[in-house]
Amino acid sequence: MDVDVRALRVTAVNAAPVVARGRYVLYWMIAARRAAHSFALDHAIARAVELGRPLVVVEALRVGYPWASDRMHAFVLHGMADNAAAFATAGVTYLPYVERVAGEGKGLLAALAAKACVVVTDEQPGFFLPRMVAAAGAQLPVRLEQVDGNGLLPLRASARAWPTAASFRRHLQKTLPPHLVARPSARPFARLPRALRDADLPRAVLRRWPAATSALLAADRAALAELPIDHAIAPAQRGGPEAAEDVLDAFLERGLSRYGDGRNHPDDEAASGLSPYLHFGHLSATACWDPSRVAGAKATGSREGWWGLPAPHEAFLDELVTWRELGHVFCFHRTDFDQWSALPEWARRTLDEHAQDPRPEHYTPAQLAAAATADPVWNAAQRQLVATGRMHNYLRMLWGKKVLEWSPSPRRALATLIELNNRYALDGRDPNSYCGILWTLGAFDRPWAPVRPIFGSVRFMSSASTLRKLRMKKYLARWS
Q1: Residue 292's pLDDT is what?
Q2: Taking CA 212 as the corner, what is the angle to CA 427 and CA 222, rounded to the nearest 5 degrees?
Q3: Domain boundaries in the chain?
Q4: Quick one: which of 149, 272, 369, 478 has the most CB atoms within 10 Å?
Q5: CA–CA separation, 318 vs 388, rounded Å?
Q6: DSSP secondary-structure letter at 296?
Q7: What are the counts of helices (DSSP H) followed by strands (DSSP E) for the chain?
Q8: Each residue's pLDDT tens digit, 52-66
Q9: Is the whole model's pTM more than 0.85, yes or no?
Q10: Cα separation of 188 and 288, whole Å?
Q11: How many Å apart are CA 160 and CA 44, to the nearest integer?
């Protein structure tokens, strides 16, 4: 990792010293939940080598986080099981801790940090992680360093949030090339001497905060049932770095060539399916593309042609890099990313002007959650979300627009969308997910004509036009 990249990706959370006499370097894994392709893990290993102390990794899972459920827990636990195996193979001390009662894990980080030279953690904008890291930095007596491994472009390479994808794309194309050289290691432990791979954790720590049982790491149904989380939201698919690699390989082999046009058609099933793994850190964005295949081109700001690849590849990279990182940069610079004030002024004004317009239908949040509307397209998308934790990419846009149309106010629509998405979607609570919801209300877009009831100048979408445009007979048959 070169000096420029370190300066942008690695920042000190507090002013506490590095304690050279500490027993180990502690990596507090909270976002990049994987044992490879991780800037944070690479930095923790570099610190261990620099200080001549072994590496210790702790990955914890709370039960008191918002929207905690069997679905979210199982996905993370699958990843912890994969990580336990990977760190065991590497001979690195790893503590997977799972709370059984809310607040039970309080004090674990402080107890481990008390014996550490330095603590390294992940930086991710959005949800509660920034507040959690800041609070930890204020309390720990040892240096806490956070590492930005969110995307190809470091968050601090953008001085502000961008109002549209087009404006961010122009900035990205001018700024990104030097950062494509620095990639996290696919084999990070090759840099860690054997003498620095095993550490004895304090016995008092292990007695109070024991490692998760094998049943918990397997997301066993009986083990999940004992936890105080929402059991009505069932596990949907397997999480973890191993599953992420399988999904990526399958997409590259069978989906990528059809991605350009096919991703918009539910029947074609050409979407990547990678967003849950990217959200939970089981997959790195840098692992999704091969730099040897990227020719690059003049920064024109165009959506196509810049990478010098076939059109489907260009389309995928525009989603993976431009749109995904637009959301991360927005949440990094805007602490109100989940609030009404995050919308552009023109969108707030036009929606407020039409807030009292008659609604064609009124549905309660409970009716929406149950897909109990008169719209078969919307119901199918909602049923897919509830059953699988995923929703087809194009239909998610329509899904949000219809909730605006059916809600008593645009502010209520925003709250309902966040609740439904974060409760059921495996990629909910993600910066990109919040920004997708904001898009349905006008963010990252422009005013559209004609001015319509309810929507005002915000882009309008209808189920009727969606049915005309998309191939979705098989999709509707499955989810109706």
Answers
A1: 55
A2: 75
A3: 340-479
A4: 149
A5: 25
A6: -
A7: 22, 6
A8: 999 999 999 999 999
A9: yes
A10: 18
A11: 28
Separation between Cα atoms, residue 361 and residue 363, nearest integer Å: 7
The encoded tokens of residue 23 equal 């027993």
CATH number for the domain running over 340-479:
1.10.579.10
DSSP letters, 96-158, are: EEE-SSTTTTTTHHHHHHTTEEEEEEEE--STTHHHHHHHHHHH-SS-EEEEE-SSSS-GGG-
CA distances (Å), origin 355, targets 31, 339, 342, 455: 38, 17, 18, 9
Show the tokens assigned to 84: 């336990």
- CA gap 113, 140 in Å, rounded: 7
Residues 68-92 have pLDDT tens digits of 999 999 999 999 999 999 999 999 9
466 phi, psi to nearest 5 deg = -65, -45
376: its two tokens: 């078969």
- What is the maximum span of the chain, computed from C-alpha positions, in angstroms? 70
Q: Are 90 and 27 in contact (CB under 8 A)?
A: no
Q: What angle do CA 185, 182, 26 make, to 5 degrees?
A: 50
pLDDT at 86: 98
d(CA 62, CA 106): 10
In degrees, rounded to 5, the angle at the alpha carbon of residue 356 between the alpha carbons of residues 352 and 361 is 115
**Residues near 219 by Cβ (< 8 Å), separated by ≥ 6?**
70, 73, 74, 77, 78, 235
CA pair distance 262, 51, nearest whole angstrom = 51
